[in-house]
Task: inverse folding
């Protein structure tokens, strides 16, 4: 059913005359009459009684418009909601940064975001081409022109172990201590720094033993909890099960860095301000 016909019927009911309704709608009266007949034919009942003095709603017309008015109002609210959602900026969030995203959202007062799980590399491409307004990811290398970058938090790399692991008893561990243990690695750049961890071993002429790969941050934690191996890619500030423990590393390993990325032309000023507040407090 064409919703214009419903609106036309409502206008006719308000005006009490096809002529006056046509004038209010800025359409020709014969056109309005034709569309009213089409609506009545589709419904299968007459909505109006015609007379020389004008038109009046039939009993069926009153029942139809009473419900159609509610339905039309609901439809228009749905359209408004859909359009406003489409206008909301999108925030890409890399794997393992849900807690940082929650703290960022808590700083916003008027901006409503759509969250999009997305790796850092994909965020950068999407921000550069305008499909994404901002993102939370892990420190990338170079950035395209027009993409801003702000350091939100820096975390020293810690070893994540099961508390019953024989190495968990030590206050600090060296890379040599870890080399023979299975290292759980992320499959993608969802959790950054994985290659840097391997480079750290190589610089010390060590050959780390690679354990199973994990598709997500949560799966990394699950595998460590199962005793499958240890991980270096989980931030010490992240929530982990009580059966796991973080242990410092003796060597100087580049830290994990969480960054806020944004399109400088997107006009997300409140979001940038919230990120700055988070960076100062973090």
Result:
């Amino acid at each position: 059913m064409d919703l214009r016909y419903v609106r036309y019927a409502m206008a006719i009911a308000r005006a009490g005359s096809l002529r006056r309704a046509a004038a209010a709608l800025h359409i020709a009266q014969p056109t309005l009459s034709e569309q009213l007949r089409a609506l009545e034919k589709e419904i299968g009942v007459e909505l109006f009684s015609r007379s020389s003095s004008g038109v009046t709603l039939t009993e069926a017309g009153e029942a139809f418009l009473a419900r159609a008015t509610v339905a039309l109002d609901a439809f228009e609210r749905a359209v408004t909601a859909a359009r406003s959602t489409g206008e909301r900026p999108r925030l890409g969030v890399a794997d393992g940064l849900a807690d940082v995203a929650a703290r960022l959202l808590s700083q916003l007062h008027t901006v409503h975001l759509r969250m999009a799980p997305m790796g850092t590399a994909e965020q950068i491409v999407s921000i550069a081409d305008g499909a994404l307004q901002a993102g939370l990811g892990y420190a990338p290398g170079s950035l395209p022109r027009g993409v801003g970058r702000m350091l939100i938090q820096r975390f020293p790399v810690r070893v994540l172990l099961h508390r019953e692991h024989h190495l968990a008893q030590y206050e600090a561990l060296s890379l040599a201590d870890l080399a023979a243990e299975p290292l759980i690695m992320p499959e993608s750049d969802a959790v950054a720094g994985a290659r840097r961890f391997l480079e750290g071993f190589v610089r010390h002429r060590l050959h780390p033993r690679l354990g199973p790969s994990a598709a997500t941050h949560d799966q990394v934690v699950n595998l460590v909890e199962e005793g499958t191996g240890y991980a270096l890619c989980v931030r010490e500030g992240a929530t982990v099960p009580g059966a796991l423990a973080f242990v410092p590393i003796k060597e100087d390993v580049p830290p994990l860095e969480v960054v806020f990325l944004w399109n400088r032309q997107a006009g997300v000023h409140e979001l940038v301000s919230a990120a700055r507040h988070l960076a100062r407090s973090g």
